C-alpha cells in the first residue's frame, strides 16, 4: 500500500513551518509545504516539497491537495469574514481531492455566546468538517504565549502591565507545543478533540510577577477598561479591525473562556508544555538586543 503525502497549509508561518519540520524530523519524507508565494519560501534546512496554495483560490487549493492523504490545516488569519471564506475554500478543496484525514487547528473558545470575534469562524469550520463527512482531528489551542509576550516586553520596560483582563485567567501555550500536537495528530490520526494548553492558567497579577523577574523595575498589574485599551491601541496606530480582535479576545479571557488547563500536550507529545516564564524571558532578552 502506497502512503499518500501529508500537506501542511500556512507552511511559511511559525506554526505551519514547525509542523513541516516536525514531520520531516519524525522520518516522514513525503511532506508538502503549502504556501502562497513559493518564491519567497526559502529554507535551506527544509527538505519538504513546496506547492503553491492560496487560501483565496478554491481551484488552486484543490490542485495543491491532489493526491494528499493527510492535511494539517493551519487556520487562516486576518479579518473573520475573510478567514471563514478561506476555510470554506480549503475544506471544499479537501473534499474534491478526497483527502483521507484533516487535522484542523482551532481554538478553545467556540461557544455561540462568545464575545471573541474568531469564535464563530472556528465553530463553523468544525461544523463543516462534520457536515462534509471529512475524517478529522481537531486541535483546540489556547492563546499563544509568544503572541502575549508583546505586552510583557512593554511592561518590562515601563513597569506597568495594563490589560483589560479583569479577574480572568489564561492558559498560555507555546506555538511549539501546538505544532508538536499537530505533528502527532497527523501521524496518529486519532479522530478526537485535543485541547492544547499551557500547564498553568495565569491571572493578571501572576503575569506581572513573571514580567518583574526579568525586568529592572517592579511591575504593577493594572486592570483597565476595554474602552481605554481600545483607545490606547488606536493611538499607537493599530488598525481598527485588530483593535476589535484584541479587545474581544480579552473580553473572552475576562469571562474565563481561555482558563482551561489540560494534560493533552504532555499526553500526546510526551513532553511537558513550555512554561510561559521561559517565553517571557526569551522575549524580554531579545527586545534588549
UniProtKB/TrEMBL annotation:
Residues 10-186 form the NAD(P)-binding domain. SUPFAM superfamilies: NAD(P)-binding Rossmann-fold domains (SSF51735). InterPro entries: NAD(P)-bd_dom, NAD(P)-bd_dom_sf, NmrA-type_oxidoreductase. It holds the Pfam family NAD_binding_10. This is NAD(P)H-binding protein. It comes from Streptomyces gossypii.
